[in-house]
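Two proteins, back to back. First:
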Amino acid sequence: MKDFNNKVAVVTGAASGIGRALAEACLARGMKTVLADINEKALIETKASFNTKNVLTVVTDVAKADEIKVLADQAQSEFGQINLLFNNAGVDTLDDLTKPVWELPTQDWELILNVNLWGVINGLKTFVPIMLEQSNEAHIVNTASVAGLMSNPMMGAYMVSKHGVVTLSETLHQQLSAKNTKISVSVLCPGMVNTSIFKNTMAREAKTPNSESDPNSDFVKHFEEALNQAMSAQTVADTVFDAIEENRFYIFTHSNSKEAIQNRFKNIAQEAAPTVPEWLKKLE
């Protein structure tokens, strides 16, 4: 897809971070844009900041299939078609950052998998049939992470969810290609990006989660400092649109990601145990 003017984009998780930057990039390219997010207040503020009539906001919990259906219905009713879908909404919890997988509360597992993985599944089940029926050019971008292509001793549930998004996207691409459709697929695998993912999770729950992890621990502080100094969401959005224009499937934002991924694949090929990525050692 190279011509974006007057086409319609749907962005989940659009009220902050990468989602907001993607929405802004859509509007800058002349697209009519549907902003979906569970945080109604942030959604309203985001729409006001864009100051354009080409925006529709729909409060949406991507973990709920019926709310995704409402999102699609309102997008079609307002703009008539859907050309670009960003399955972008994502969460993580402080406990997932600091606790081993066997100690992570079930409610954290359910939240992370329901939003990060089932949110994408729900999006595909709803929007792909619409795109197929339209019979015109369309593109789907599923937000995964480099965490979906490697493993490390933190963020276990998050990594599980993102590994799922990567293989789901690969399968989707193969199936749509086999049917000779006009729908292209990309999977976004960013490295560390300056977002408020943990604060957004708290907002999603409408209260501070019942976390046993110390938000003032040295490790958490180092991780947050790294996030604050990380790549901007705007840079990620520009990279995504370059990839869409070039019809690239895998979208990487950080040059050092491939080295870490290759090291993991090397361990697999050699039947060796997983090793801790170098970038994570620097946080310790």
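And the second protein:
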Amino acid sequence: MSEGLVPKGVAHVDLGVTAEPEHFVFLLLPNLSMLAFSAAIEPLRIANQLTGQVLYRWTMMSEDGQSVRASNGVELGVDCAMGDTPAGAKVFVCSGVEPEKAVSKKVADWVRYQWRTGRTVGGLCTGAYALARAGILKGRGLTLHWENQLPFRETYPDLDVREQLYVIDDRIMTCGGGAAATDLFLKMIYEKHGPMLSQAVLNMCLHFVHRSEVDSQQSSKSASLGIRNQKLLQIISIFDEEIDQEILLDDIADRVGVSRRQMERLFSHHLGRTPKRYLMDLRLQRARALMAETDLPVSEVAVACGFESTSHFSKRFRERFGVSPYSFSVTTG
């Protein structure tokens, strides 16, 4: 546990006398995102360093008290096994890849107990899986890394997943991981100690701008694909929204006011693919994500991604990824 960790530094913020230090508890799960964890804990360390005071203390736990290997292979030591936490502590579950596998019943029970005894509970990156299994997210807004949102929605269809950097809903705090963890923790520093310190921490992180809660995790389709043609963007949006349905390209062309030939030219010029190829790639990528992080059978994945039959899905999946969906689900299960 960081008992009064105040590193020395050149920059300084005169904060005056402050109240009791705030305590954070980080539960590290196997294959956690090291980027999200460090992006959360570093603003706390920097706040202590800038003020020369113990504004924040933190404890790192794991399920069994043993070190935890992050998704990048780095082994992280912890202070203790999960157990008692200080009254008023904020408890954050740090997760990463294969989040469902990392959440045991013991972890879910512990998270639920923290919530029921009045603590703020949060999830970094895919930590929302632990909160969902603990049963504390019903009626709450939440977020997690954009890559994991689709399989999460399939597993927990009744929960309110929002495509935001972070979400604060009373005593539930979740963020998409990565640098979004810094934005969330800067928000807490701002609310506790004001804009002077939060701005100084932001500058020390070379973060440049404190993004708001409602900012999107991903760049727009226009920016990410490098295109500005509104007709093409409209077609792609329809593909995304209706991927589980039968999509007739001629009908889509009519809906956006272009001919089928114009549609073909737009995809060829801007994306180097036919509309049919783009749609197939989109469906296969979504299917792969569902199979990697849910227990849905192959037949249900095929339906959820708009394939006309399981056999057709299996054939296309093997062509694209070099393995059958059945074998893929075994190796990732």
